[in-house]
């Protein structure tokens, strides 16, 4: 049907309607012939998957006649939200009570903005940890798994603004298994609320279902809501409170729990609890000030959301697609939303409406649709003369009524000339300064389309270049709406990112009008414009996220994160904010008193609360990666795109984040191998491997390990106690779409000396990214060997039986007496340092705790033997033993 619409876009309105009506009949006539020539597919297998639970499937021949006995016994979800940064731990326990083995799928829907940071499976008293690798490396494992016919799970888009994570694992008879998944995200404030979404679907009634959400904020929590479970995709206008949720507010902290028993679960649904558990909250903002600055361990975050009362007047240019593909329900929903938009305009606002298809025309108050209709469909236009630009229309009862009447008469037809529409709209907005003598009016463009460019300029690069050049001197924000599956969302994202706005997808559904209205509500009330935030001292400027913003809208929030400069001796971190309100320019200040330098650059201690000590650093990494990915999409230069992508990749690997550039890798437990076969043999290890030749400083993990920021009950760092990846067959997990990059690698390839001993998967490899939309999970069992080897280094008695260590299948020597090595620089918690032997670092934690050693692992090259690599540590500068 979509293909037919595309072909028929250029037809006249009446002919188009006839074609759309006739097309289903044509398809009905063709269906029998198609069925006769199409091979029949066996679709008897049940592919249903359940969120935050498991979907079992028998592996025996009687799969279709014998019901599985695998089910979820408990589902625990724990979210810790500190200063808007949420870390969620999902723990699902299953059991196979049957007499035969079966395959269980652990599946969960994740918020679209979340990054997975850890995954593990516990079975037979062993824990299998996943680690993150560069996407191209993971692709090789995935392809090998497919070639071997192994089962593969996947992460795919299934629900609005979410991604599906799924992994399949074989479960023996009477076997228990525990899945643990951790993901992290920064909650965004929209329309005055932070919303935290947790998807639930254990696949039935479970004995233990618990959700626990703890919130700690910078100011008193004033709003806390838990709506009823959302078990419908579409938006509801009125939501009731969840009667089973227990909430408590205590100043700056809040707690939410949800633990329905079996009977209560049945009352919700006979099939068990299914849907989204949502927590909404906000904090006190009664004073217009410079916001909150918080500092933890050398990193800071600045939250800015002043409750300015007076809304700045705006000049909105609505650019609406009325091409043939908009015919039907989409056009009706767009009209309904436009009527709402127009009626919400305030006195003092200005507006224009541009309708476009093959051509583009600007609406005027005195014209009628019949007068202008022929212009829309008279042919393709490449440019519009200045005489076609209409002056901004002031909001009044008569102008709004005339606009509503006109909108309701519009009929779709023709092609899609995106380039012409955007350039025409920008010329309207630029005309504002000539027509209206009010510098405080905020111009913005709202652009809606449901298709790809088919008329005029159709090349994406040319369209973005033309748009950017036209807007270069005005910098007018463009907010784009991609309506339906046919819209080119990537193109719209790039256009908006290059022009100070953002793009959203509008799903084709009965609530599309509400989706459009919610979007408009976010940007309809500008409170500040031209915001510039400056930090007067004590920050590393290159570490800062975005500090300039075109507008601040009511109900939103500006967030800046960065690193402190350890060489600066200032006693406070101070910010200066310059912005424009409706009444003129303002200047706001905010500051945070800093502890002595040694207090906020501490060496991690064994009993340190890792979440509170490390979460702000992870928040910085999270936001920096998000901004780098947006910047990469907006750039045109291949060289700059690749450099930006490399920065994002390095941070993704360092902080163990699953992003569009990385994949999670695992070797799943395999009951068909005995214990001895899960150990690597010399033959297995005697193969070519890739090691990075790039400076290793980019990959030194943060103090406290990748698991810092995760509740201590979950276990240690994923770097600690990992197997070598030989313990079972790989299983693929597909996820986000990475951006294409050039082929190649930043690895040297060479032969290594090997012995079949303990293997570590540190996951610090790095290659140029490729276009690959699959995610992998690669897991191995924990293993230790008892023997004392290095006096003073306590962990060696459980790792070595000689002075060798293997990381990702590559051997390194731990020779504390070797002096003929190449000294390299590295970064230790943001400070420049040197890669040295472990005995030259005065850190008891590194010497006593193997996981901390791995967090600071770096590589030293032998000056005599190119094939020998020494394992060193990136030591804090203050702990270097210069003797």
TrEMBL record:
The annotated region (Disordered) lies at 39-69, 668-696
User: Which PANTHER family is this protein grouped with?
Assistant: INTER-ALPHA-TRYPSIN INHIBITOR HEAVY CHAIN FAMILY MEMBER, INTER-ALPHA-TRYPSIN INHIBITOR HEAVY CHAIN H4-LIKE PROTEIN
Superkingdom of the source? Answer: Eukaryota
Spell out the SMART domains in the cross-references. VIT, VWA
Q: Where is the composition biased (Low complexity)?
A: 50-61
Q: What is this protein called?
A: Inter-alpha-trypsin inhibitor heavy chain H4
Which organism is this protein's natural source?
Answer: Argulus foliaceus
The residues covered by the VWFA domain are 315-523
Q: Mind telling me which Pfam families this protein's record contains?
A: VIT, VWA
Ordered alphabetically, the record's keywords are: Signal
Signal peptide positions on this chain: 1-35
Recorded GO CC terms = protein-containing complex
InterPro entries linked to this entry: ITIH (IPR050934), VIT (IPR013694), VWF_A (IPR002035), vWFA_dom_sf (IPR036465)
* Domain annotation VIT: ranges: 56-185
């Amino acid at each position: 049907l979509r293909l037919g619409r595309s072909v028929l876009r250029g037809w006249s309105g009446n002919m188009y309607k006839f074609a759309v009506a006739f097309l289903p009949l044509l398809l009905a006539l063709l269906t029998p012939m198609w069925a006769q020539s199409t091979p029949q597919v066996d679709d008897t297998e049940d592919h249903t998957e359940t969120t935050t639970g498991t979907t079992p499937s028998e592996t025996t021949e009687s799969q279709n006649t014998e019901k599985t006995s695998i089910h979820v016994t408990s589902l625990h979800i724990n979210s810790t939200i500190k200063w808007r940064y949420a870390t969620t731990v999902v723990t699902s326990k299953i059991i196979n009570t049957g007499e035969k083995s079966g395959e269980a799928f652990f599946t969960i829907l994740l918020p679209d903005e979340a990054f997975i940071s850890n995954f593990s499976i516990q079975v037979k008293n062993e824990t299998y940890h996943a680690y993150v690798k560069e996407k191209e490396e993971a692709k090789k494992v995935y392809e090998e798994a497919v070639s071997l016919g192994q089962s593969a799970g996947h992460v795919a888009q299934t629900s609005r603004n979410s991604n599906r994570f799924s992994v399949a694992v074989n479960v023996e008879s009477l076997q228990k298994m525990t899945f643990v998944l951790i993901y992290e995200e920064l909650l965004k404030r929209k329309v005055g609320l932070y919303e935290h979404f947790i998807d639930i679907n254990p696949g039935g009634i479970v004995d233990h279902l618990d959700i626990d959400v703890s919130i700690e904020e910078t100011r008193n929590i004033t709003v806390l809501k838990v709506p009823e479970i959302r078990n419908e995709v579409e938006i509801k206008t009125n939501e009731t409170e969840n009667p089973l949720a227990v909430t408590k507010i205590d100043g700056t902290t809040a707690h939410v729990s949800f633990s329905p028993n079996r009977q209560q679960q049945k009352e919700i649904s006979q099939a068990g609890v299914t849907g989204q558990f949502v927590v909404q909250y906000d904090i006190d903002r009664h004073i217009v000030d410079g916001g909150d600055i918080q500092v933890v361990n050398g990193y800071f975050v600045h939250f800015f959301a002043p409750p300015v009362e007076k809304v700045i007047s705006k000049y909105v240019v609505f650019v609406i697609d009325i091409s043939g593909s908009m015919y039907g329900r989409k056009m009706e929903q767009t009209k309904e939303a436009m009527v709402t938009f127009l009626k919400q305009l305030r006195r003092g606002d200005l507006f224009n409406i541009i309708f476009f298809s093959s051509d583009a025309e600007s609406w005027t108050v005195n014209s009628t649709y019949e007068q202008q209709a022929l212009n829309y469909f008279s042919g393709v236009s490449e440019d519009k003369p200045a005489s076609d630009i209409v002056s901004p229309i002031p909001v009044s009862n008569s102008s709004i009524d005339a606009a509503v009447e006109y909108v309701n008469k519009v009929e779709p037809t023709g092609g899609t000339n995106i380039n012409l529409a955007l350039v025409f709209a920008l010329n309207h907005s630029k005309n504002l300064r000539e027509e209206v003598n009010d510098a405080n009016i905020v111009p913005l463009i709202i652009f809606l389309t449901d298709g790809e460019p088919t008329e005029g300029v159709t090349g994406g690069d040319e369209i973005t270049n033309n748009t950017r050049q036209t807007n270069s001197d005005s910098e007018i924000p463009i907010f784009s709406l991609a309506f339906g599956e046919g819209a080119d969302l990537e193109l719209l994202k790039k256009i908006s990112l290059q022009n100070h706005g953002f793009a959203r997808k509008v799903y084709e559904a009965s609530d599309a009008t509400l989706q459009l209205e919610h979007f408009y509500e976010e940007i309809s009330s500008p409170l500040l414009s031209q915001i510039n935030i400056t930090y007067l001292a004590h920050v590393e400027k290159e570490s800062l996220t975005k500090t300039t913003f075109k507008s601040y809208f009511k109900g939103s929030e500006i967030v800046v994160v960065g690193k402190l400069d350890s060489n600066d001796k200032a006693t406070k971190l101070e910010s200066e904010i310059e912005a424009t309100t409706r009444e003129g320019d303002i200047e706001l200040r905010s500051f945070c008193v800093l502890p002595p330098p040694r207090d906020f650059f501490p060496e991690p201690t064994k009993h340190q609360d890792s979440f509170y000590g490390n979460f702000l650093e992870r928040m910085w990494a999270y936001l920096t990666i998000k901004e780098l990915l947006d910047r990469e999409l907006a750039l045109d230069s291949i060289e700059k795109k690749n450099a930006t992508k490399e920065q994002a990749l390095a941070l993704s690997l360092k902080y163990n984040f699953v992003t569009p550039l990385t994949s999670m890798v695992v070797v799943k437990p395999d009951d068909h191998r005995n214990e001895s076969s899960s150990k690597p043999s010399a033959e297995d290890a005697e193969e070519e491997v890739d090691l990075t030749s790039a400076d290793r400083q980019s990959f030194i993990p943060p103090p406290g390990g990748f698991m810092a920021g995760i509740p201590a009950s979950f276990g240690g760092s994923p770097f600690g106690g990992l197997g070598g990846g030989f313990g079972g067959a790989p299983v693929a997990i597909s996820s986000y779409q990475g951006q294409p990059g050039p082929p190649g690698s930043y690895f040297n390839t060479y032969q290594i000396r090997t012995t079949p001993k303990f293997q570590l998967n540190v996951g610090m490899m790095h290659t140029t990214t490729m276009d690959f939309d699959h995610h992998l999970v690669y897991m191995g069992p924990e293993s230790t060997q008892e023997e004392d080897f290095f006096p003073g280094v306590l962990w060696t008695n459980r790792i070595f039986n000689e002075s060798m260590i293997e990381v990702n299948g590559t051997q390194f020597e731990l020779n504390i007496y070797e002096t003929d090595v190449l000294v390299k620089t590295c970064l230790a918690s943001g400070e420049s340092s040197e890669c040295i032997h472990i005995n030259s670092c005065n850190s008891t934690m590194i010497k006593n705790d193997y996981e901390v050693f791995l967090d600071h692992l770096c590589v030293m090259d032998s000056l005599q033997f190119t094939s020998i690599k020494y394992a060193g540590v990136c030591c804090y500068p203050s702990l270097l033993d210069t003797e």
